[in-house]
Amino acid sequence: MEYIQGGVTAAQGFIAGGMHCGIRKNKTKADLAMVYSHKPCTAAAVYTTNLVKGAPILVTRENIADGRAQAVICNSGNANTCNADGVEKAVKMCEIAGKALSIDPKDVVVASTGVIGQVLPLEPIAGAAQGLADSLTQEGGALAAQAIMTTDTFSKEAAVEVEIGGKAVRIGGMAKGSGMIHPNMATMLCFITTDCAVSHAMLKKAVKDAADSTFNMVTVDGDTSTNDTFAVLANGEAGNPEISGPGADYNAFAAALEDVARRLSKMLASDGEGATKLLVCKVAGAESLQTARTCARSVIASDLTKAAMFGADANWGRVLCALGYSGAQIDVDKIDVSFQSAAGRVDVCRDGRGIDFSEELASLVLGEQEVDILVDLHMGQESAEAYGCDLTYDYVKINGDYRT
Fold first, then answer.
1. Over the stretch 215-232, which tens digit does the pLDDT of each residue have?
2. How much is the pTM?
């Protein structure tokens, strides 16, 4: 597997673009994105588990129920959620995109992100769609990634190339998310494209597995979003024999898809609202994968742990506390805890008890922009990672007047 440049247009046959259409008052911020495949695609997606769901999710879920799609249209600045006319507006967005691209509106994935409960104006989208469609290029992935941002401070793209069935297959994607991030799914919109030939059944499995190990392991603030959508489109232009069942080709594809999703997940976590550092909790020695994931998520979601990491305070007791209330069946008398970063590693807890350590070294380790919280349960062979960020003063500042 090789890391390559690009995002949603890294794979063959995909073009994209983004522009300011007028949903946002700030004309310097793009607010409408479009992605298009020259060929119809196999499609699969997973969505937020929040009972309050954005209207675009309901429409997208119906559109790709047949496992097919060919384009994505997404606006930022307005979530089109909790509106009486939300579904009608989402359907209309598909019709607008379908007309601009000369495809069936049912083959469009639609998404929206932004403020909840405000009526989405369609006029800006209708007025800009044809011009946007005409401007789509293979270099336009970066513009699309910028257009789906809300409080993100940077756009998020990743891509890889892997050999499958003797062919070079590319997988690339873009994501947005900075606040309202918590597992099931973790916040975001994420669109990944690939030129791999893969059946709907196997793509659906790969998407769910990738979400479980990456996006469902991200938390910033404990709030599960209403509009989370992780969709993957595969157009088969790489020319590999179609992946229709388990085996080496599927394993290679699934691993590459997971890698792209993990890189995007870490970007989401590092760009958490007000964050100054990326936190990765790595749990080892668990009896089961579920136990490892539960423990890792509990630590990364702990506000007290996050606050301690902001202050570069090696308060390992907060880590142990989060493990204790996680709900996982663990032996607290076997737990080891360490902190690690580019500045080194400091062991702070062994067998559930504090040990002597250098506060000076700990401060240096925790002062880096990426910090690993290492937990060994000493109960088995399973492991998992969760991704988050520190909790800062700026998080409250950003969300104190998010709507106004």
1. 889 876 555 556 678 999
2. 0.88
